[in-house]
Batch of 3 targets.
Target 1
Amino acid sequence: MKNIRVAAAVLNQTPLAWRENERNIIQAIEAAKAEGASIVCLPELCITGYGCEDAFLSPGLHREAWATLMRLLPQTAGLLVTVGLPIAYRGVVFNGVAVVVDGEILGIVPKQNLAGDGIHYEPRWFKPWPVGKQAVLEIEGTPYPLGDLVFRFGDILLGLEICEDAWVADRPGTRQSRLGVDIVLNPSASHFAFGKQEIRRRFVLEGSRAFHATYVYANLLGNEAGRAIYDGGSMIASAGTLLAEGERFAFDDFRVTAATVDLDLTRLSRAQNQAFRLDFDATRENVIVSDFRFPTVIPQPQLFERAGWERSDDLKMEEFTRAVTLSLFDYLRKSRSRGFVVSLSGGADSAAVAVLCAYMVKFALQSIGLRGLARKLNYIEDFSKTASPADIIAKLLICVYQATQNSSDTTHDAAKSLAETIGARFHRLEIDELVEGYMKMGAQMMGRELTWETDDIALQNIQARTRSPSVWLMANLTGSLLLSTSNRSEAAVGYATMDGDTSGGLSPIAGIDKAFLRQWLTWMEETGPAGIGCLPALSAINVQTPTAELRPPEQHQTDEADLMPYDLLDAIERAAIRDKQIPLEIFVRLREVYTQYTEEQLGNWVERFFRLWSRNQWKRERYAPSFHLDDENLDPKTWCRFPILSGGFEWEISEMWREIREASEEGETSK
């Protein structure tokens, strides 16, 4: 048996936080060494942080990244460690991984396949390294091998795939496997999306099986730069078997997952595979030889068992809760805000935001304990050693209910009850006098009285906008972060008041649709995340019909009456924005599924969606930053670009109605 101990270390880094990032790397290396590992895989671009954006083009950044790498070299005594950083070569910047062994840089491997889709813009800053090419990088008179490299330690060969390299058809690992590589390391910065971890598991397992090798995968952890979430998934597989997988969504600065691998077993797999052909013609120029030898260890029993919630039938609910709460925590501490303020209306959206803030505290205490939470939020008044979750929530979360004459006791009571149950501070403000003042000014400017018959939208919006200054004042007075409560369904059709309910520095639920949020709130009421539990007080929220409560009560305003059924809205949005279908194509699809509605109803709703979508792009451009959760994101800065001014799908809508009329006439004729 040829047993080697390997480790994948996930890190919660911050762009350009040089000393903090360096400290996390050092602590992770020390923890891996304590686990007996001799090979440590760190995430992609871990020195600088992955989300540095255009700062990646700064020569000063390159110099500081290299200086940090030099300071890290002594920490690698007796180890092989992969360290990610940008590398400038002849005026061109590459996304590189330094392979450091026992205090020496053996070589630097640049990424071959850049992530340039979705929220990733790597081709803006980096160039892809060509397959099979090698060069020499000279820094301060010292030459370093640079390029498509593998590394040999005695009879052991080691190669790398850097994040996106593993997601393409022509994987570097495929070519490396023909050299007989024993170990493949994958330093990654792979953003979270619902269900994505299962895809990662497949390529890690398939890589280890097809390459006849050990495969080590290490991802980033947490909310690194504001929008993208990293779940901190780490995996170690050998010959098609998953040996270890780290816990995701931890609140730590780092986590280390280690396993003992038997290289003789992967070589046996290679020997038994009749299709395997060794590449004898491969150039020796891409093989870097070292006299370092990995210590052989005594095999240990692998007691790997995936976290219980990972096997849940409610996986999307669990992932949503854990991803957003971790992101809120990181946004809170990295922005150095002293807490959150939520304008709690008593409806579903603001309730969801408040609950996520409260559960953030519960998950943090479960993951890192009171001492760890106090350390990470050390700019906030010290927490008592005996502080309860409710005590901490009260310190971090303020909820404000702002009533007008159109507000009901139902929503007030629901908001107050929820805030008290989760432990938040609660305030009720009466804003009718302020609203009336604005209405008088409007009437003075227009030279007439304002009425619901003639000024409906203006009268609704002034109420929502009047709520904004007071919650901003509360946020400023307490040094807190004001959270916007708009969801993705509202963003799609502009069903939100700019500078009203869109006010805030962060919009935690703008990446998720209303239908899912309502399902999630019911799940939170009845089940809740594993290890934390449910919140029955949400029943007062869940029994309500969603309403903005901006029109007089006798008008019985509801969101779906203003728009359309939310499940239908989400279906249209998905087809139009994610799948890029035109109105007629969507109508045909809906007609087959939503048979309870007439063709005229469906046509009207499709038209309404496209008209509202087109005229409200300017609102989406102004939304506060939101978290990326799936491929239906509408954030124009990172995912879904659309012109602010456009033709508004006029021709496409007219074509849809023409087809509907012709089909109707044919139906009448056939009768």
Note: The CA atoms of residues 335 and 481 lie 9 Å apart.
Target 2
Amino acid sequence: MGIFSKRKKRGRRERVEPQLFSSRARAGKSRRKAPQRRRSFFRFMAKLFFKFAFLGTVGLTAMFGYIWFSLDQKGLLQIPGREPGIMVLAADGTTLAEQGSFFGDEVRISELPDYVPNAVIAIEDHRFYSHFGVDPIGLLRAVYTNYRSGQLVQGGSTITQQLAKNLFLTPERTMQRKLQEVVLAVWLENRFSKDEILQLYLNRVYYGSGATGIEKAAQAYYRKSARDLTIGEAATLAGLLKAPTTYNPLLHPEAAAERARLVINSMVEEGAITETEARNAIEAPARVAASDYIPATQYIADWVIEQLPDLARNYSESIVIETTIDPVLQSFAEKALRKRLNEEGTKLSVSQGALVVMDTRGAIKAMVGGKSYKRSQFNRVTKAKRQPGSAFKPFVYLAAIEQGYGPDSVEVDEPIRIGDWEPENYRQKYMGPVTLKKALALSLNTVAVKLVSYVGPDSVIAVAQRLGITSPLGSDASIALGTSEVTLLELTSAFVPFANGGMPVAPFTISRITTREGEVLYQRQGEGLGIAITSYDLGQMNLMLRAVVTEGTARRAQFGAFEIAGKTGTSQDYRDAWFVGYTAQLVGGVWVGNDDNSPTKKVTGGSIPAAVWKDVMEVAHEGLTPEPLAGDRENLLSGGPDVFPLPGEQDVSLADDQNAGGSFFEDFGRLFGGGSKSEPDGGKKKKNTAYERMKQQKDSK
């Protein structure tokens, strides 16, 4: 029954179906049910996708938050500022040197030819303007390439990621650091425009050879601004970024050229340049114009910056330092010193030199701290303390002049002995009775030692310090021959009073310091330190020091119609050679020798130093009118020129032990108590007689 009934029902349906539904109707019914099944499937997949998307978003957000808070948050929300820039200007307003970034970023994207940043984009991150800080396509491509090659050949980092690493992260290669890089890249993209990111990158990325930033790189490799780069040069610099050492055009020119061609081809593919421009760039490859030369103005810049803490404190923005440097004279002085050292240095075993020129206010016009700043940054003008030798004698003679001696006072040039010390003249030649004028002109050592014995070492020290010597000075007899070490700067400045009428000066080169916006942070004020030499005594000194140049050891320093005075100096064993000379307008000092204090081949102050001095000072005096030297003119002209027989330059300080034992005062009685060969009355009586004679001469004037 049940079975039948079922069959009957099934049969009835079978009988009814043909009447109620046609084949077309059945087909239509079938077509109406299919879309419902597809919609159900798509709804299922959509729900699944959104679930995964939601979970993925939550996961990424959590990871992002974890990585974000794992970073050191201190200062993270601000791009690290570049060090405030310092611009050092010459007296005429031209730039002598720059340090740091004066205007923040050294170059702006808007200042560069389009192909300069495009070269970097083409080879480093050609989808830079389309990604959000991370390039998924580039990352997948890098993963695939590295998998195929079996080694790490592509990094997949974008320019933004590289910038994030440079600005905020350490160079360690860990997964956490890489994730931090990604997070920071996204943050940078949300905070800055693409051009701002690119500008930050170009100014902070390392290009090799000590150059950070594209401007420094252009200067280092091509000696030009990044604003003036050619396509080939821009491509070469862009190619450096992958491996600054491997593709350094100075060290590996072929590898650099091959890499540059790859960059140029990439630029064509990206439409940054035309095929014609690419062909021209490849056919005329970039030629490096780098040099190991750094101008001597850097010595000045270093010295200026050393003084900043005392003159301008707590500045937080770029500053301008105005100096007294004459850029034309500075350039010539550097070349003149190097030329003389190159021509004569090797054969005479002289490897180094230094010079400084200043006016009669102490304002420095030129300073060269060494033969090559690139090879040695040690400033021998301001830092090297050396024995001045006979260049110290003017202070001895001035002390004597102040105690009554004069240019015509007579002393005996003869061998002398103080304890175990026997100061000798050059080539052990002695001239017998000579005037002080002649003794100073020929730099006779024995006469200088005798003068110290008469006036006392303390008087000489007082004179030297009054005129500007600041280094400690020995208080024994050897001070007569310049055995106490001084710098070229202080010795030269101590000669300024002879040129300016007797006023000591503090040498300087900084005249003013302002911020970039013009706020004055420092302004030099005041002139001179008062009178330290009377006009009469100054006239006598200039008469004698003039004779050093006209008839003495510094004849090589003469030029034109200018009245020139000065003093040569040579230390023991010819280790140091000096000449400090002056006119009524300028004072200059030159030193040559060796940094290791090794002896030269008999180089004296009247040779290379006097020649360099003339070379430089002759140029420095172009356009100036000759003027008389300072001092009592009647006294200065009364002596008249003497023609001295020149047995040799008598300015070698010590022939034996320069630090010979025994106090000068302990040996004084032994040396002078029994009198000299020419005057048997004894040293003390001789001193009193000479003093009274000079006093009478002064009173009669």
Note: Residues 1-31, 639-701 have pLDDT under 50 and may be disordered.
Target 3
Amino acid sequence: MAGGVPGELSQYRILGRIGGGGMGVVYKALDTRLERPVALKFLSRRLVGEERAKQRFLHEARAASAIDHPNICTIYDVEETADGELVLVMAFYEGQTVGERIKARGALPPDEAIDLARQLLNGLARAHEAGIVHRDVKPGNLMVTRFGELKILDFGLAKLAGALDLTQPGMVHGTAAYMAPEQAQGHAADHRADVWAAGVVLYEMLSGRCPFTGDNPVAVLYSVVHHEPPPLAEQRDDLPSTLDEVLRGALQKRPEQRYQTARELLADLEGPPPSFSSPPTLAFPSPGKPSPVRSILVLPFSSVPPDSELGHFSDGLTDEVITDLSAIDALRVISRTSAMQLKGTSKDIRTIGRELAVQYVLEGVVRIRGDSLRLTAKLIDAGRDVNLWAEKFTGRLDDVLEIQEELSRRIVSALKIRLTPGEERRLSQRPIGDARAFECYLRAKREIFLYSSEALDRALRYLDEAERIVGENVLLLSARGYAYWQALNSSLASGDGLLDRAHGCADRILALEPDSAHGHRLRGLLSIVDGDLQQSIRHLKLALAKDPNDSDSLAGLLAVYAFVGRAAAAVPVIDKLQRIDPLTPLYQALPGQLWMMNGDPVRALGALSKAHAMEPENPAIRFVYAWALAAAGRRDAAAELLAPLPGTAAAGVFGPLAAGLAAALAGDRDGVVAALDDEVQAAIRRDLQYAWIGAGCFAAVGERETALSLLAAAVERGFLNFPLLAQFDPFLEPLRGDERFEALVGGVEGRWKALEF
């Protein structure tokens, strides 16, 4: 169609050109079969000239077409012309873009601008939750119909541009004035870039001009990264006073300090946001300043004497205070697993606060003499290294539950947090009413986190003793079920008997307390083992609804999203997990696993290299890092990482998998067969991820039968990552085109599309 107007295209008759730009040319057309007007977007050949990019775009367009939302332009179909040109078939809307409205009228009335912003945010939220990020939100991509309905256009097109070029460091894509700072600097961008762009659009609708300007695109990008827009209050006096606060939250330079979701921004736009005045309450500081969101690290309490056998008591009390505070939505609490990494640290408070981006640090010393207990606690402003208060809590060991609650309430009061009725109830609850049973529970939790068979046996004995004292109890059942889960997850034990006992704990918890976060978390983790990932998603989200700061639930949900190839749905989970659990290497590796399983090994390497540096001897992290290196084409580096694992006793299943992968990279068929023999295959067939990895090793050396058999086992266990299987996994390339492989993947597609998130 170069230079001219296309004629017939399938059942569409071109009526005339209605727009065009760098992404392509748009025509109005008539669908002669359904007798309706449509918009046809002929995509620029430079975007889809390469076959892999074309296939990736087709996948993205089909995913976007599945979104049914009144504020998102409906995509009916994707056509391909005889000469290979791609055409998007979209709904046609009579109206004008937001950009055209601003150009014609200048600043819009507040009610109109806020209503359009609400519609924009509702549409973005729905798309983000479905796994789609726009990446080029701007007034020209927002159509307002003659009925006042806002329609977001061009979902997926910006990603197509990025898919072709973003492997080159420093490349930037989008429209300069609406790009988030991370985009402007060529860094990876996620759904929070859309949140930023929505803030820019809202500012422009209210002021009549873009907040970031310059004489050329480079100057505009500099403004985006370095300048703050003038407050709206200085430009017009008919706006709600809260709007500048909302925009300040949307236009934070660092994505982790911005509104984290479109729904968060929408909530503050629809109601008065918290004030930035002292005491600070909103998570959006000015660049270079400590985050004003209330955030706290509870350092592991020390015990006196330091070598006391009751050291478990200090750890357990630390854990329970973290649990209390984590249930408060207005407070970001560093998780137990990260906090315990700092036990005995020599770092000063300011360094800790800066590295973990927390405002406050709690220190405590526990002294036990006979049956007397004294806890000395200090709450410290980490940025200034100044004590806000220091208090002593004293009593008998039997009073530990009251002391724990009193300490938690004192922290909440000092931080001026207003508890919701639900938070008030949770803080007052005493899940274990007997101090002796509580002590057994604390001992058991400490043993569980030692990750050894002997420690798990001791934990179960402590829980038996606690149950003899108080009987059946949700907290004790949760700890018992978690011990069974850890034995399975850490390969410390195996067998259906253990899995059945863990399921029995989950059943009893939910029978006693149907909305228990403990029960739903355990059921969600066990559902991964069962291969029912839809149930896993459901239960883990129910657990997080009750306990939103639980890192185990977040990590489990992130793993499931990786297994099913839903990266955008996982991004908010990544953000939260990294904020509350930044020091746990395995949790820092999970985002890398996610990007690896979403067909982006280059992006995966950043997270995996960081996690590997934190814990270089961890066999799971080392193996996944090597797998990503191999997928990214860095085979020599991958082989170097894999070499030590087969001879490491602690490597477990990663030993033979490492040997199999190394042989596959070398094209050594016999080596793969020897490493992944019948015994190993029988073991890895029980795990969806290991079976998938084994399939890739066999496929790479032409062992199709074994590869297909293992792949079928992975799918049966819940590996429903259709995009990875169908297109992105380079190790499965030799299977593509095989009728059996295509039939298997075709069956996965329907199940993948049916998953609810």
Note: Residues 110-129 form the longest helix (20 residues).
